[in-house]
Amino acid sequence: MRLLTHNLMTCNVGACQTAGTNYPLRIVAEEMQQSEREFSPAFVARMLARLDWSGITAAAEDLSFEGIPAEMPEGAADDDEFLRKLHSLLLEMEVVTGSLVCPHCERKYPIDKTIVNMVLREDEV
Amino acid sequence: MSSRPEHVNPPEIFYGEDEAAKYRKSSRMIAVQAQMSQRAIELLMLPQGEPALLLDIGAGTGLSGSELTEEGHTWIGVDISRAMLEQAVDRGVEGDLAEADIGHGLFFRPGTFDGAISVSVLQWLCHIYKNEHVPKRRLRKFFQSLFNCLSPGARAVFQFYPETPAQIELIVAAAMECGFSGGLVVDYPNSKKAKKYFLCLSAGVSAYKPEALGTGPRNAGEGVKYTEMKRREARTKKRRGIKGTREWIDRKKTSQRNRGLEVRRDSKYTGRRRRRAFG
Ligand SMILES: C[S@@+](CC[C@H](N)C(=O)[O-])C[C@H]1O[C@@H](n2cnc3c(N)ncnc32)[C@H](O)[C@@H]1O
C-alpha cells in the first residue's frame, strides 16, 4: 500500500462511515520498501487538489518521516522539486507488511505483500 | 454443470490459485482481458494527454490495470480474491491493490477518481452467497459508494456478462437510483462470439453517448446501439398480502425479478386455478 492510496481511503465500517470519523487511518508498518517509479509532474500536480494534507502529516508521523511541511506550500503545483519529493513520498514508498487502524473504531486492516485487506464481516457493513 | 461460474461458487473461491494461474498462463485469456479493457478505456473518453487517477473494480491479476498504465494513468485496484491479487503483485503491476468486497461499498473519499473501469465483474453482484446477501442492496451500496468517490462528471465503464434481461434491468436500475446517467453499449450485437455488453455511466448529467461497434448495415437487425436508461417510477411500499392471491403473487414475482431471477410472465391466468383439461 502506497501513501497516495492511504490518503484517499477511509474506514469502511458502517458506523464509522455514518459518523464521518473514519479518517485518516493510522499506519502501523512492519516492513516498507521503496521502488523507483516514473515521475509525472502533471499527475502529482493534479493530485494536489485531491490530497488531504492532514492525512499526509499524520502518515509522516506514523512512519517517522521528517521534513514534511505542516501545510501544503503556496505555489506547490509549479514547484518541480516539491512535486518530485511528493511523488517519492506518495508513489514510491510502500508498506509491504503491517496494518491500517481506524482512529474511531480501532478496526484493524492488515497489509500483507503490499495488499491491504479491507474485507468486512457482514455485521460490520 | 452450469457454464456460469457465478452459479457454482462465490468469487473468492472460484478465483482461487488455479483460476489465477490461468490468468498468468493462458495467452487467450490474457488477450481477451486486454482487448476488453482497451475497449472499456476507449469508452471512458478521458481527455487526451492528461494522466488520470483511475479505479479498477475487480482488478484481479491486473491485466486490465496494465492497460491503464499503458495509457499513462495511475490506478488503484480492488478485488475480493486474494489469489488473483497476489498474482498481480507477482507480475509487478504499477497499481496499488486492496482486497475488498465491492458489495460492501467502496471506501474512498469523495471525488477521489477521474474514472473507473471494470472488466467481467458486475454479474457476480447479482447472486447470493451468504444469508445477508440481497443483490439489489449490494448493487445499490456499491453504486452509491462509486458515485461518491468519483469526481463530478467522471465516468465508469463496466464490461459484464449479463445472464438475463432481468439482470441487466436490475443492475441498470440500481445505478440510476444512485444518481448515475448513461446507458448500455452493445458491441457486435448480432455476433454470438463478439457480442459484448458495456454499461457506461456518468456521475452527473454530462452528455455522454458512447457508440457501439459492429452495428452497421451488415449487422442490422436487433442492433441495439445505445439504450438510454429510463427513470423508473418510484415504487411505493407495499404490505404483504394473503398468500396465494393475485396481489401476493404479483408482489412475489416483482421481488424475484428484482433479484434478477427468471420469472413466469404475468397473464390473465396468473394466480387462477386452472381447469383440468380432460375432465
Ligand atoms: C474476470 S475476473 C477480472 C480479471 C481482471 N480484470 C484482470 O485483469 O485480471 C473477475 C474478478 O472480479 C472479482 N470479483 C467478483 N466479485 C467481486 C466482489 N463482490 N468484490 C470484489 N471483486 C469481485 C473476482 O475476484 C475476479 O478477480
Automatic annotation (TrEMBL), chain A:
SUPFAM superfamilies found in the cross-reference section: Trm112p-like
Gene Ontology annotations of biological process type: rRNA (guanine-N7)-methylation; tRNA methylation
Entry-linked CDD domains: Trm112-like
GO molecular function, one term: protein heterodimerization activity
Family indicated by similarity: Belongs to the TRM112 family.
Name the UniProt record assigns to this protein: Uncharacterized protein
Taxonomy of the source species: Eukaryota, Apusozoa, Apusomonadida, Apusomonadidae, Thecamonas
TrEMBL record, chain B:
GO aspect biological process, one term: rRNA (guanine-N7)-methylation
UniProt keyword annotations, A-Z: Cytoplasm, Methyltransferase, Nucleus, S-adenosyl-L-methionine, Transferase
Keyword check for ATP-binding: no
GO cellular component terms attached to this protein's record: cytoplasm; nucleolus
Positions with biased composition (Basic residues): 232-243, 270-279
Protein family per UniProt: Belongs to the class I-like SAM-binding methyltransferase superfamily. BUD23/WBSCR22 family.
Annotated ranges, domain Methyltransferase type: 55-158
Cellular localization per UniProt: Cytoplasm; Nucleus
Basic and acidic residues: bias regions: 244-269
CDD domains: AdoMet_MTases
18S rRNA (guanine(1575)-N(7))-methyltransferase Bud23 C-terminal domain segment(s): 204-275
SUPFAM superfamilies: S-adenosyl-L-methionine-dependent methyltransferases
Primary localization: cytoplasm
Keyword Iron-sulfur: no
Superkingdom, natural source: Eukaryota
Record-level Gene Ontology MF annotations: rRNA (guanine) methyltransferase activity
Name assigned to this protein: Williams Beuren syndrome chromosome region 22
Location of region: Disordered: 230-279
InterPro entries referenced in this protein's UniProt entry, alphabetically: Bud23-like (IPR039769), Bud23_C (IPR022238), Methyltransf_11 (IPR013216), SAM-dependent_MTases_sf (IPR029063)
